[in-house]
Amino acid sequence: MPVQEPSGRRVRTVEEVKGVPRGPARSLWRTAKEQEAVHGRARPPTKLAPAAPGPRTIRDRMAFFRHAIVRWAEEYLKHIFQSRRPLPSYPIGHTGIYRLPNNVLAAIASDWGTGTSSAYKVADQMAKASPDVTIHLGDVYYSGTEEEYSTYFMAPGCWPAGKLRPRTGADANGAYVLNANHEMYSGGRGYFDVALPGLNQEASYFCLENDHWRIVAIDTGYHCTRGLKKFFSFIFGDTTRLDEATLVWLDQVIFRDAADHRPVILLSHHQWFSAFDDRNYPTIGEQLQPYLARVALWFWGHEHRFAGYSAFAPKGTKVRARCIGHGGMPIEIGWKRKEPTPAVFSDQRLAGTAADASQVGFCGFALLDFRAGQLVVTYIDENGSRLLQETWTHKDGKLSGSAELMESSPGFEVYRPLEDLVM
After folding, report:
1. Is 38 helix (H, G, I), strand (E, B) or coil?
2. For residue 419, is it left (φ>0), alpha (ψ between -120 and 50) or beta?
3. How far apart are the C-alpha atoms of 82 and 137, rounded to whole Å?
């Protein structure tokens, strides 16, 4: 059951969060069980009350599970039968493009919204770097409800906002957040009703740009879980895809000018491919094919690991992908590589001693330092260790890069020459 830190942050233990499933039924069950434990039998208030003791007597336990099951059933039926929150789009005349300075520092993390001590350590390291803008690639656990967003993301001391404050409506804010599957388990209520208005973010897809680079963020979560069709996915197939409004925006706004040679840093929650996970999302890669030749790096999360790939595609245009789904979930280690997907590295370092029953790895984030035509990407773990650095230079329409291992330790697996990251 979550406890309160002296800082006011509510903290979940590794045991509470480890192994969170990717399906709505069991994620919603964890949400219902936690809310019942915190609030007792009454409906939860707008803000979390002080933690209440859990049920102790048999009668209390029976009441606990009865009320938790009722709450879970209500939420799951809503998930299956009721409509999701509407997907906001940009009004006519608004491009969804926001201006960044030419020299700007951005910190990005994914799968961060767990409320674990590791997640808060990542947030503290991000804040220590003093970025101008921060971007979360999605997943606030367990089900992205209003209360979970208010408690584990928007509350003071949780997600660190960057320093940027918009001077005009065309300037970037200091913090952005993407939509993901756990957000949609509650129909997107926490994401669309709490996070977007709280961050003054208009839509779940956007572009941040300066004279030299573009950061293009897309929503892969909205259609990843869709009621009965998703429930019977073994018949209909996977529904994870980009919405038509996003595709129109990419085609008619973002990539309309073929003469725009600024490299694109693409951000999404879901992966196109993986060397470790059996579940991938080919529709996303197929939808993005017309634009991938202009993408320098594609960052995604969803898989709870940190890994990097050389240029690869299951079919079509190749991309250089980086999985940074290690933002706040307990990182379960010991995964095996699959061929032919060309992973260059993965971080399987054990956090703590071998006697530690949690047997989890390190959380972390990526720091993107844009210096006019140069981009330096540094990967940093929850303790501030700088693991790997990529340096990219864009000049006269040509992109070149280099990679350097900054700190090597047992468990940081390098499978191929680091130069393969930047080829």
Report:
1. helix
2. alpha
3. 25
**What is the dihedral sign for C-alpha 157, 159, 160, 165?**
negative
Kindly state the tokens that stand for 26: 């069991």
Number of neighbours of residue 12 by Cβ within 10 angstroms: 23
302: region left, alpha or beta (phi > 0 left; psi from -120 to 50 alpha): left
The candidate with the shortest Cα–Cα distance to 259, out of 374, 100, 375, 397, is 397
Say how far apart CA 260 and CA 331 lie, in whole Å: 39
DSSP string, 305-319: SEEEE-SB-SSSS-B
Question: 280-310 pLDDT, tens per residue?
Answer: 999 999 999 999 999 999 999 999 999 999 9
Q: What one-character-per-residue DSSP string does 59-72 give?
A: HHHHHHHHHHHHHH
Quote the mean pLDDT of the chain: 88
Q: With 70 as the cut, is the pLDDT of residue 41 above it?
A: no
Rounded Cα–Cα distance for residues 369 and 299 (Å): 15
CA distances from 259 to 98, 263, 317, 375, 397 (A): 20, 12, 19, 21, 10
Tell me how far apart the alpha carbons of residues 393 and 80 are, in angstroms, rounded to a whole number.
48
Cis peptide before 342, with omega less than 30 degrees from 0? no
Set out the domains of the chain in order of their start, with CATH numbers. Answer: 3-81 (no CATH), 97-422 (3.60.21.10)
- Which of 170, 260, 242 shows the shortest CA–CA distance to 207? 170
Q: How many beta carbons lie within 10 A of that of residue 272, not counting itself? A: 23
pLDDT(229) > 60: no
Q: What angle do CA 313, 251, 266 make, to 5 degrees?
A: 45
206 phi and psi angles, rounded to 5 deg: -165, 170
**Contact predicate 71/63, CB 8 Å:** no
Q: How far apart are CA 309 and CA 300, in angstroms?
A: 12
Q: 3-state class of 418 per DSSP?
A: helix
